[in-house]
Amino acid sequence: MVPGRGNGRAEPQAYPGCSRGLILAMPATRVLFGAVLLTLLVSVSAVRTQTAEKERGDSAMREMRKEAAHRQRRIIFNNDGNDAVYQCEEPTVEELLSKRTTPLVGTQCDTIFYCPWSAGFGQFTHNSQVAEVFTTKERIFSKNITADLIDQGTDPLQVMVDFCKAKDIEIFWSMRMNDVHDGALKDGDLFYPELFPQFKRDHPEFLVGTKGERLPGVPSSRSWAAVDYGRPEVRERAFRIIQDVCERYELDGIELDFFRHLTYFRSHAQEGQASESDLGKMTALLRRVRAMTEDVAARRGRPLLIAVRVPDSVEHAKIIGLDWERWLAEDLVDILVASGYFRLRPWSETVELGHSYGVPVYAGLSESRIKARKGANSRETYRARAMNAWLEGVDGIYLFNYFNPRTSLWSEIGDPETLAGLDKTYWATARGPNAANSWVRDGDRFGTLPTLCPNRPVKLAEGKTVSIPILVGEDLAQAKAEGIVPDLRLRLQVENLASADDLAVTLNGEAVAGGVLAEGWLEYTPNPDLIRRGINDIEVTLAQSADPAPLLHDLCLRVEYKKPE
Predict the structure, then answer these.
(1) Is 427 part of any domain?
(2) Residue 67 belongs to a domain
């Protein structure tokens, strides 16, 4: 039959290799293809719209986060959580709050960083769903009320969250990133076996050393008990612990406290310096934490901040494995707290670096451990340390290991105007550099601050001048303009000095005279006009030789204001 004839209807032409049935189905196929294409276009458009909306949402949340990061925090209080373990006589919320928290209401303390113990990498007093919960009441832990509070449907962290929300106080959870208090030994055995987590018992291969090992790269005797963040299992556990808290507690932020303690990698512990690979691993963990906190923030509709506490020397920190300047550059940190066991650099240097990345910087004021110095942790000393930090441009004061909530300091050191007119004691150095060597061999080589203290005395020699700079935040010129002239006492602690006349002392190039020597201290009453607000240069010269040679142990300036009649 000739195609197109016989029945009067044209039959479709077949292309070579195509079946007749396929050709008959082509119009329907084109319709289906068009429908699929339209669906894909609509889906792509929807995805683009959702992506644009998410980007706008992410941008808005970042702006909210930046604003929250720069809110006023006059004083940040780091509470180590010992109140729930050692101090409570009764297992009640009120008792817990009374020990360190309730008295802070109405003071300059705007923020609390609460550390629910965080002992030994993974033991906490909050009701963690990932880590171990420290509930023992054995031996010295008989007052531990953690289990009691959990039985009541709360825990120490939740108590703090509820209290702070009610009192409009900012609340952060603080994690000690590698606590090694559990590494203390006595006669070869764990001094506090309760502190040693099951995680470490089950995985000794995750530690940077063996029990009691004196590590080649880290002089600290307890560092053998640190976990190795070079292990993916350790980083995963740390992340899950942090994630669990962020998702289950209504926090304003979290603190990653890297100062407890300063050993993170086997490379550092065994070889003296963290590898570049290990630096990258810790930074990758920070990235992961940031992504998680941003996700939590998006779901709850308000930002979740990240604070870190780190050594103030970038170089010292990198040896340990903490590349915190990179963290700032990558927007992984919202709040920088500098210093802890030691301080190596001027506050102004850390402030300049932090601010260059848009990150506020807080002066970490820990207790002085210069045991030979009387008054090392006096109110007058804390006031002076805070005044100096404010002078150098910090955004606020961070108190660590300071647990008296009823002292006047909580209403003083958070404002330089409040500090003006209050008695102070300025020291050449508040803490001393020795602790920098406990975590990095010769770690004090990164320091640029004065080192004079009883731990680092200076031998005096005839005719040789010793220069000691001392930072003084006091604005004595302004005080004088207001008719206020405080009493000043410049004091030098000198061993083996026979007479005040054996020492010549100048202050900013001007000789000071009339020194009185008593009980190893040489005391002068300098003219207030000689004192600068900032660095003051003090020079000491031994007039004649002596045997044994005199040792200069310490130097301070006391500023005392006359009390109103």
Answers:
(1) yes
(2) no
Confidence of residue 53 (pLDDT cuts 50, 70, 90): low
Q: Any idea what the CATH number is for the domain that residue 320 is in?
A: 3.20.20.60
Enumerate residues 6+ apart whose C-beta is below 8 A from 19: none
Give the Cα separation of 283 and 387 in Å (integer).
34
Q: Is the separation of the CB atoms in 170 and 108 below 8 Å?
A: no
Number of C-beta neighbours around residue 396 at 10 A: 24
Q: Of 490, 341, 482, 365, give the one whose Cα is nearest residue 427.
A: 490
CA distances from 408 to 361, 378, 414 (A): 24, 12, 11
Amino acid at 526: P
Q: Return the DSSP state at 549.
A: P
39 in any annotated domain: no
Whether residues 364 and 513 fall in one domain: no
Can you tell me which residue has the tokens 């008792």? 95
Same-domain pairing of 340 and 473 = no
Q: What is the DSSP letter of 212?
A: T
Looking at the structure, tell me whether residues 133 and 259 fall in a common domain: yes
What is the extent of the structural domain holding 539? 458-560
Return the CATH number at 527.
2.60.120.1200
Per-residue buried b or exposed e for 332-344, using 16+ beta carbons within 10 Å of the residue's own CB: bbbbbbbbbbbbb
Instruction: Please indicate, yes or no, whether residues 421 and 488 belong to a single structural domain of this protein.
Output: no
> Which residues, in sequence order, are CB contacts of 494 under 8 Å at separation 6+?
460, 503, 517, 520, 521, 522, 550, 551, 552, 553
What percentage of residues in the chain have a pLDDT greater than 90? 88
With a cut of 60, say whether residue 20 has pLDDT above it: no
CB-neighbour burial class of residue 421 (10 A; exposed 0-12, middle 13-18, buried 19+): middle
Pick the last residue of a domain from 426, 446, 466: 446
Section 57-66 average pLDDT: 94
The separation between CA 528 and the C-alpha centre of its own chain, rounded to angstroms, equals 36
521 and 549 share a domain? yes
Q: Which residue has 């820990």 as its token pair?
A: 366
Which one, of 450, 448, 457, lies nearest residue 429 by Cα? 450
How many separate domains does the chain show? 2
The beta strands (E) that lie in 358-408 are given as 361-366, 396-400
Tens of pLDDT along 490-523? 999 999 999 999 999 999 999 999 999 999 999 9
